[in-house]
Amino acid sequence: MTMARPGAALPLLLVVVGACCARLAAAVHLSALGRTLIVEASPKAGQVLHAGEDTITVTWHLNASASSVGYKALEVTLCYAPASQEDRGWRKANDDLSKDKACQFRIARHAYAGGQGTLRYRVARDVPTASYHVRAYALDASGAPVGYGQTAPAYYFHVAGVSGVHASLRVAAAVLSAFSIAALAFFVVVEKRRKDE
């Protein structure tokens, strides 16, 4: 049986520590990003949209005091409003964007094509019922956010998610419920007559 040299694990330990430090150094915080984009979305404050049916028009342009040097791409996301994050850890916002869970739904990602743009997005069927706002990130060549803009806190809108219960299913449930009540009444009457005989 051979014994490992005491210093043999040191290079591996240095690699692991270096990787962890690099990851911590690479963390991007929303508060450190400049609010370089002005973002607007078509829903009015408090408006209710239906998942799978309604569309959102998102417009954005560069803030007049900002520079777009280094912008290579733009990513637009749908983010949970603070009211829809309460008591839901899986939706919580975090200043460290690698830990942020508020912006889970990507609307679009495309090359940065200048100071302004517009896009249309049909609310996906898997977007759950909640209040939302729109956020756009300006990304550099590595895909890291270097600027952002959002509709919050100016206003939030609501999405009514797909429940999976269609009108035909409700009708069928009502008919079967009525049938089961009628069948129960029938069997109660038949059983009562048997006892009386």
UniProtKB/TrEMBL annotation:
Signal peptide: 1-27
Molecular-function annotations in GO: nitrate transmembrane transporter activity
InterPro entries given in the database record: Transptr_NO3_Nar2
GO terms under biological process: nitrate assimilation; response to nitrate
Alphabetical keyword list: Cell membrane, Membrane, Nitrate assimilation, Signal, Transmembrane, Transmembrane helix
Transmembrane segment boundaries: 171-190
GO terms for cellular component: plasma membrane
Family of this protein: Belongs to the NAR2 family.
Function: Involved in nitrate transport.
PANTHER family linked to this entry: HIGH-AFFINITY NITRATE TRANSPORTER 3.2, HIGH-AFFINITY NITRATE TRANSPORTER-ACTIVATING PROTEIN 2.2-RELATED
Full protein name: High-affinity nitrate transporter
